[in-house]
C-alpha cells in the first residue's frame, strides 16, 4: 500500500472519529491556515506580517519582507529572492535548511527530512501573509525547532465574488501579471490565481552574452465546501521556473572592476524546475472540540545546469574546482584570473544538478479547553525522498572566451551522482497553556522519530540495475524536545515574556543538531505604539555543517561535519508608532537585531569548517541588522514609504582570512501609491536608490556577489 493511500485512509478515519483541534477557531476564517493565531497570546516571540504589510512596499523579494522581523537574516544570492538562504537566531542560513518552512501550515521544503535545502521557495508575489514563530512555541512546528518556523499564507478564498488583476513593468525588462478570481455561492467557494514574473536580469555575461534573468509562473486553484461547522478545502498548485542563474561569483579583482559582470564560462548555466502540490484540509467544530487535519502530496523536480570545474587536467597549474579557481585568483594567481576572464583556453565542465523530490503525508491538531487549561495535541506522519541523477557536459573555452557547443564528457551516473535517499518520519507534540489570572504558563513537548535509507548505483547509465555494494545504508533518529514559556500581564499595556526550549534539527546520515534555547523580554502596546524587546540565547551541543554544492570546499555533498559547541546570543527590538497632523498619518516602524555567534572549541577541519579557534565567529551571521520604515498616508488616497535597511559585517569562513570578509552594507527603497477608488490604485517602487554595489555574499562557491542595483517598477491593481 502506497504512502498516499495510507495517508488518505488515515485522514478519513480521523474525520469520521470526530477528533478535534485548535481551540476557539472561528469557522468563518478557518480556510486561512495559521501557526501563530493571536500574536498577543503566543508564549514567545512571534511576528505576523499581514497582507496590508506586504502591499505597503509591494515586495516580491522575501529578503525585503523578512527585514521587518527581528532575529531573521537572509543571505542574498540572486538579487530577486528566488532562492533565499534564511537564518533565524543564528541557525545556518545555507539553503534555509535549519528553518521549518511552510505554506498554509504544510512543510514545503522539497524533502524536509531527507534534504532540507530549500531549492524550492514559494513565489513570494502571490503570498497573502507571513508568520514567523520563535521561542518555545516553535516546538509545535518541527522538524527544525532551534531557530523557529516561517509560514507563508496563500491567497484565501473570498467570502464574496471577487476578482483582481495587477500588471507590472520595471527595470531589466521586468514584467509581472498577477490575477485572481474568486466565487462564493452557498456552500461552495472557489479561487483561481495566476502569477507570472520575469526579468532579463541585471548582470551581463562577458565574451559570450546571454540572459541572466528568469521566468517564473504559478497557477493556484482552491475549492471549498462548507456544511455547518465543517469545512473541506482542496488546494492545487502548479509551478514552473526557468532562471539563468549561476553558482559562480566573482574574484575580488573582477568585482572591483565591474560588480555586474558574469564570467563568460557561465553562458550555459540555467535552472529549470517544476512542481505540483496537492492538499486537502478539513476543519470541523465538534463542540467543545475542533479538528483540523490535512493530507498533502508535493512533487518537485529541478535541474540546475551550472559550471562545476574549469581547467580540467590542471593544464595551467590551477585546481579544477571553480571555487578553487576563484580562491587562487584571489590569492594572486594570474593563470586562475585569466581562466575566469577567458584569456586562457580550458575545458569547462558543467554538471546537471538533477533532482526529483517527493514529500507527502498527513497531519492533524486536536485542542480542548478544560477549565483554565488549553490543551493541544498534534500528530504528523510523512515520507519524503530525493532522487539524484547527475550527468556532465563540457564546453571548450578558447582564448578570448568564446565557448564551443556542449558535448557529453562523462555519464556521471555512478556513486553519489546516482542515488536515492528516503525518510519516513513520525512526530507528535503536546502543548498545554495554563491561565492563572494575569500569568499564562505554556508547557510543550515534541517527539520526532525518523528512519532513513540511502541506495546508490554504479551502472554508468540511468537504468539503476547495478547497486553499489556498500549500499543500502540505514540510519534512524528518535528525539524529544521540551519547552516552557510564560507571559505575565503587568498591566493592560505591558506583558513580560520568558521561555526555554530544547531545539533539534535533523541531519540525514548523522547526529541531529541540538541546542538549549532561552528568551526573556517584554511587549508594550498603547494606542498606536508598540514596543517589543527580547534577549535570546542558543547553546549548541553540536553545530552541524552539511556539505552542499553551494558550500564549496573539498567535500562530498551530503557529508556532515561537527562544529562542536557554539554559543549564540543576541537582542531583538521591534517598535512602531504613528503620528497624525493636518489630515496626514505618519506610520513608523523600526526593527533591530544584534547577534553574537561564536565557536567554543578549537579544531581543524579542512574539508568544511577549515581552521577554527575558540572565539571565532560562526560564518554568515551579521553582528547587527536594522530596518526602518517611515511612511505617510493622506486622506486623498496618496501614500508612500521609505525603507532603510542596514546589515552589519560578517565573514564567509570562521578564520575570516583575506577575501572572506563581507563589510556592512545598506539599501534604501522608496514606494509611492495612489488610490483612485475602492477598485483602482497605482504604485511605483524604486529599490536601492543610491545604487550601492557592495558585496553581500561570498557564496556559493567562494565568489563575491553584489546587491541588486538601482531598479524601478510601476504597476496598478484593479479590483472587480
Overview of this structure, please?
The structure is a single chain. The chain is mostly beta strands and 720 residues long. It has one domain (3-719): TonB-dependent receptor, beta-barrel domain (Maltoporin, Chain A). Helices cover 7% and strands 54% of the residues. The strands form eight sheets. It has a 22-stranded antiparallel β-barrel. It has a five-stranded mixed β-sheet with strand order 1-6-7-4-5. A hairpin with a 2-residue loop joins strand 9 (174-185) and strand 10 (188-199). Helix 5 packs across helix 6 (334-341). The radius of gyration is 25 Å and the shape is globular. The protein starts with a helix and ends with a strand. Residues 1-31 have low confidence and may be disordered.
User: Total number of helical segments?
Assistant: 6
What's the overall average pLDDT, rounded? 91
CATH class: Mainly Beta
Q: How many strands in all?
A: 41
Low-confidence stretches: 1-31
Derived structural class: mainly beta
How many individual domains?
A: 1
**Beta fraction:** over 45%
- Name of the CATH homologous superfamily: TonB-dependent receptor, beta-barrel domain
Q: Any idea what the shape is? A: globular
Lay out the secondary structure.
Layout: H1 3-16, E1 46-49, H2 51-56, H3 62-66, E2 72-75, E3 85-88, E4 100-103, E5 106-107, E6 127-134, E7 148-154, E8 162-170, E9 174-185, E10 188-199, E11 204-205, E12 214-227, E13 230-243, H4 252-257, E14 261-262, E15 270-286, E16 289-310, H5 322-330, H6 334-341, E17 346-370, E18 373-389, E19 392-397, E20 407-410, E21 415-436, E22 439-457, E23 473-489, E24 494-505, E25 513-526, E26 529-540, E27 544-546, E28 560-562, E29 566-581, E30 584-599, E31 603-605, E32 610-612, E33 624-634, E34 638-647, E35 650-651, E36 661-662, E37 665-675, E38 680-687, E39 695-697, E40 705-706, E41 711-719
Parallel strand pairs: 4-7, 11-14
Antiparallel strand pairs: 1-6, 2-3, 4-5, 6-7, 8-9, 8-41, 9-10, 10-12, 12-13, 13-15, 15-16, 16-17, 17-18, 17-19, 18-21, 19-20, 21-22, 22-23, 23-24, 24-25, 25-26, 26-29, 27-28, 29-30, 30-33, 31-32, 33-34, 34-37, 35-36, 37-38, 38-41, 39-40
